[in-house]
Amino acid sequence: MADVTIESILQENRSFKPDAAFVETAQINSLAAYEELYSKAQADPQTFWAELATQELDWFQHWDQVLDWQPPFAKWFVNGKINISYNCLDRHLTTWRKNKAALIWEGEPGDSRTLTYAQLYREVCQFANVLKQLGVKKGDLVGVYMPMIPEAAIAMLACARIGAAHSVVFGGFSAEALRDRLIDAQAKLVITADGGWRKDAIVPLKEQVDKALANQAVPSVENVLVVKRTQQDIAMEPGRDHWWHELQKTASADCPAEPMDSEDMLFVLYTSGSTGKPKGVVHTTGGYNLYTHVTTKWVFDLQDTDVYWCTADVGWITGHSYIVYGPLSNGATTLMYEGAPRASNPGCFWDVIEKYGVTIFYTAPTAIRAFIKMGEHLPKARNLSSLRLLGTVGEPINPEAWMWYYRVIGGDRCPIVDTWWQTETGGHMITSLPGAIPMKPGSATRPFPGILADIVDLEGNPVPANQGGYLVVRHPWPGMMRTVYGDAERFRRTYWEHIPPKDGQYLYFAGDGARKDEDGYFWVMGRVDDVISVSGHRLGTMEIESALVSHPAVAEAAVVGKPDALKGEEIVAFITLDSEAKASETLAKELKQHVVSEIGALARPGEIRFSDALPKTRSGKIMRRLLRSLASGEEVSGDTSTLEDRSVLDKLRQGN
Ligand code: PRX
């Protein structure tokens, strides 16, 4: 982190007020209303959250204390008893929503399913009983490695129902990455599918699970449940592997939701950090339920007639919070799409919007840049008039991409909510409220009520308007992560020590650089640590370097990101070879493939550069700043005085 200067170069002065027709029906419908809510929450965060918890959620038992804050460890709604599956399902069955569509699903080959709240409830209860039959108990951990099919949501809700924590691993991760995560989580059971459809091909999920579990590599896993999705042949290991549909058929639909302690673990989700292996971000039950519920309700201005579509994968936090828990807790209709735009149907997203009359569309800047490239004739050929609100998440959105999204997809009438948040924060933190906060393209705008966000220097002092600094949060919030699974010290070190407590107040350090303008709008500039964001997915340089070094030809590797018009960043790997090995195109290809099999296709380096040595400080630390400049073809500027061997830089410039 010492290797970082934060400089803000983006100058963007456009501002857009939400459309009058939108404001007319919006829940929070003026800047004054937002500011009033914000001030109220700021003055007394505990009362603010407690009132919402009472109004918005069903509790089996009231809490004794709203917040127990022993920095950096927070407990929300202490001794409250609640179940998130109950809040997402059971409580809607006694209302008119019983027969409302809870989940609309569209498969890539064009098949589809709709589950009402009553139907989803039944599936979840049955599957919860299947889990129980296989010995899963409250407190156990279940691995989920699934395509984007309704069973992914059913699996998560069933775990939550019986008090087992889930750990969803993105289906694009390799067998090795899956194995590491299952080992760390000590998963007792894995839920998967024979495969899933993506870009006209089958992702062989079960095959990856078999590889991950081969030779008893994950001794904690006793059973594997397999959904039949693609119908291709797969191996089933007798005694260990079971077909979902066979057990589901005979399972009872009677499964009352387990009263969980508000602070019981709901899930672990792995995310990349700047050092070491991925960390298991732990979220608990009551606070997470409340936070995802309220942010979904206000940020998406959810109305009962909405058809809401978030294009994320359930393997990421966005899928957890804003496909499954937040929307269902609100009794919304949430749409789930299995595939991705592909050569055979580049306009598939617009088809889905037209087919279902989607009203709220939430996607990522990397997808928007891809839409721009594919051409506006595709959305223009469909009727997108049902849309009333757009959202983005995952990385800063370039103002020009924002303008395109606003004009071409939103028809100049839909507000855009640019939502800044993280796996760690559980839900939206800085975002506009669409009927209240004027938008500035490229800015995530203002903090959500109750979120005391600020920009500070390394000592924790607030920096003046428009000066770059570190994005921090000053007060705990209900959706915050509670710890790193099995490593509380790492939690403290990563998020609470980079910037020391100031006047007794602990500051949550998000790892992002940002500035605040004269109107209090936040402009997030990106990570200040060694995390690369490829298509909005976080990848730790350390993980990719470890994968490269595990290849016998590699002596040392340093990985940096280089700006990429489509993906945000592309991975460039600088490699020094073992004395026996020779640099070649073939070896470069082999190393790229090696990373794919160690981590997954999302981590494939775009470029491999061989070099005799890497630029290091005298203490042996690789100077990534220099490599970043070299990778993007910029002049190396700034201080190079700590460089141990200056000739390395010249050699690298000459490309050897
Ligand atoms: O750098 C920020 C960026 O994504 C990081 C969080 O990544 P992850 O935990 O994978 O969660 C992604 C989905 C919530 C942040 O530290 N980021 C996320 N949203 C935005 C963003 N950067 C700028 N603007 C955003 N709206």
From TrEMBL:
<dbReference type="InterPro" id="IPR020845">
    <property type="entry name" value="AMP-binding_CS"/>
</dbReference>
<keyword id="KW-0460">Magnesium</keyword>
<feature type="region of interest" description="Disordered">
    <location>
        <begin position="634"/>
        <end position="656"/>
    </location>
</feature>
<dbReference type="InterPro" id="IPR032387">
    <property type="entry name" value="ACAS_N"/>
</dbReference>
<feature type="binding site">
    <location>
        <position position="535"/>
    </location>
    <ligand>
        <name>CoA</name>
    </ligand>
</feature>
<keyword id="KW-0067">ATP-binding</keyword>
<feature type="domain" description="AMP-dependent synthetase/ligase">
    <location>
        <begin position="96"/>
        <end position="483"/>
    </location>
</feature>
<dbReference type="Pfam" id="PF00501">
    <property type="entry name" value="AMP-binding"/>
</dbReference>
<feature type="binding site">
    <location>
        <begin position="198"/>
        <end position="201"/>
    </location>
    <ligand>
        <name>CoA</name>
    </ligand>
</feature>
<dbReference type="GO" id="GO:0003987">
    <property type="term" value="F:acetate-CoA ligase activity"/>
</dbReference>
<protein>
    <recommendedName>
        <fullName>Acetyl-coenzyme A synthetase</fullName>
        <ecNumber>6.2.1.1</ecNumber>
    </recommendedName>
</protein>
<feature type="binding site">
    <location>
        <begin position="394"/>
        <end position="396"/>
    </location>
    <ligand>
        <name>ATP</name>
    </ligand>
</feature>
<feature type="binding site">
    <location>
        <position position="549"/>
    </location>
    <ligand>
        <name>Mg(2+)</name>
    </ligand>
</feature>
<feature type="binding site">
    <location>
        <position position="318"/>
    </location>
    <ligand>
        <name>CoA</name>
    </ligand>
</feature>
<keyword id="KW-0436">Ligase</keyword>
<feature type="binding site">
    <location>
        <position position="512"/>
    </location>
    <ligand>
        <name>ATP</name>
    </ligand>
</feature>
<dbReference type="Pfam" id="PF13193">
    <property type="entry name" value="AMP-binding_C"/>
</dbReference>
<dbReference type="InterPro" id="IPR000873">
    <property type="entry name" value="AMP-dep_synth/lig_dom"/>
</dbReference>
<keyword id="KW-0547">Nucleotide-binding</keyword>
<feature type="compositionally biased region" description="Basic and acidic residues">
    <location>
        <begin position="643"/>
        <end position="656"/>
    </location>
</feature>
<dbReference type="InterPro" id="IPR011904">
    <property type="entry name" value="Ac_CoA_lig"/>
</dbReference>
<dbReference type="Pfam" id="PF16177">
    <property type="entry name" value="ACAS_N"/>
</dbReference>
<feature type="domain" description="Acetyl-coenzyme A synthetase N-terminal">
    <location>
        <begin position="34"/>
        <end position="88"/>
    </location>
</feature>
<feature type="binding site">
    <location>
        <position position="527"/>
    </location>
    <ligand>
        <name>ATP</name>
    </ligand>
</feature>
<keyword id="KW-0479">Metal-binding</keyword>
<feature type="domain" description="AMP-binding enzyme C-terminal">
    <location>
        <begin position="543"/>
        <end position="621"/>
    </location>
</feature>
<feature type="binding site">
    <location>
        <position position="551"/>
    </location>
    <ligand>
        <name>Mg(2+)</name>
    </ligand>
</feature>
<dbReference type="InterPro" id="IPR042099">
    <property type="entry name" value="ANL_N_sf"/>
</dbReference>
<dbReference type="InterPro" id="IPR045851">
    <property type="entry name" value="AMP-bd_C_sf"/>
</dbReference>
<feature type="binding site">
    <location>
        <begin position="418"/>
        <end position="423"/>
    </location>
    <ligand>
        <name>ATP</name>
    </ligand>
</feature>
<keyword id="KW-0007">Acetylation</keyword>
<comment type="function">
    <text>Catalyzes the conversion of acetate into acetyl-CoA (AcCoA), an essential intermediate at the junction of anabolic and catabolic pathways. AcsA undergoes a two-step reaction. In the first half reaction, AcsA combines acetate with ATP to form acetyl-adenylate (AcAMP) intermediate. In the second half reaction, it can then transfer the acetyl group from AcAMP to the sulfhydryl group of CoA, forming the product AcCoA.</text>
</comment>
<feature type="binding site">
    <location>
        <position position="538"/>
    </location>
    <ligand>
        <name>ATP</name>
    </ligand>
</feature>
<dbReference type="InterPro" id="IPR025110">
    <property type="entry name" value="AMP-bd_C"/>
</dbReference>
<feature type="binding site">
    <location>
        <position position="554"/>
    </location>
    <ligand>
        <name>Mg(2+)</name>
    </ligand>
</feature>
<feature type="modified residue" description="N6-acetyllysine">
    <location>
        <position position="621"/>
    </location>
</feature>
<comment type="similarity">
    <text>Belongs to the ATP-dependent AMP-binding enzyme family.</text>
</comment>
